Amino acid sequence: MTASFPPPFLTGERVFLRLPEAGDGAMLLKFHQRNEAFLAPYDPPRPRGFWTEDFWELYVQQSQEQFAAGSSCRCLVLSRDTPGMLWGKVNLSQISRGPFHACIMGYAVDEAMEGQGIMREAVSLVIEYTFHTLRLHRIMANYLPTNERSGGLLRRLGFSVEGYARDYLYIHGAWRDHILTSLVNPHWSGDIWQ
Ligand SMILES: CC(C)(COP(=O)(O)OP(=O)(O)OC[C@H]1O[C@@H](n2cnc3c(N)ncnc32)[C@H](O)[C@@H]1OP(=O)(O)O)[C@@H](O)C(=O)NCCC(=O)NCCS
Asked: Which residue in 29, 87, 88, 166 is deepest, having the highest Cβ count within 10 Å?
């Protein structure tokens, strides 16, 4: 099944969310350059070419293809007042349909914008979109036990802890345990095959 169109253009009080578009490569590269040290403890090792604009233009193209195929939804979190100011990203990946109807969510905010409720605003919009437009039943989000900020964000948004996975992801140079959480759509209805 392909994802619902139109693609997400979500607007909050301070943020504006959309899919990556051709020409966003430079902005994405700069976001990762200025947050290199900040994000390193939470991310996998960088793939080849990561620090080039070409890599990010390919990311844009793949994001659009995957969205059209219904397998991912990568949202850029932009300032509503300052166009072109990238504050973060919220990604839905591994979108699964049929009896599962679920996805995995990841996110990151610009270090300079941390602790201002930006991610809470952005993730709330994405949850609403995921449940009502993408019509998924479950959003899963997992975090390092030391990442209290991420745990706090998920707790405030209603996510429940479901388990503890040992050596779950290869992050910052090693296999690391994660706390597994999810949020279920209590109002889901419809046909699991559509
Ligand atoms: C985890 C992460 C996304 C949280 O981002 P964030 O924008 O700080 O998160 P929130 O939106 O929940 O902000 C909450 C904080 O803003 C404060 N805040 C200020 N103004 C606010 C407002 N208008 N509304 C809500 N909260 C506000 C809250 O008091 C809270 O502060 P506290 O954390 O000191 O208690 C961010 O720390 C990050 O990107 N970390 C690195 C990458 C990462 O960990 N990714 C997730 C991997 S699982």
From this structure: 87
pTM score above 0.90: yes
Q: Is the predicted pLDDT of residue 3 greater than 70, yes or no?
A: no
**Which CATH homologous superfamily contains domain 9-136?**
Gcn5-related N-acetyltransferase (GNAT) (3.40.630.30)
Q: Looking at the chain, list the stretches that DSSP marks H as alpha helix, in order from N- to C-terminal side.
A: 25-34, 36-39, 53-69, 118-132, 148-156
**CA gap 165, 132 in Å, rounded:** 29
Supply angle C-alpha 44, 96, 159, rounded to 5. Answer: 70
- Give the distance, in angstroms, between the CA of residue 10 and the centroid of all CA atoms in the same chain: 14
65 pairs with which residues across the strands? none
Q: What is the DSSP letter of 33?
A: H
Q: Are 88 and 21 in contact (CB under 8 A)?
A: no
Q: Which residues line ligand 1 (CB under 6 A)?
A: 39, 42, 107-109, 114-120, 143, 147, 149-150, 152-153
List pLDDT tens digits, range 25-45: 999 999 999 999 999 999 999
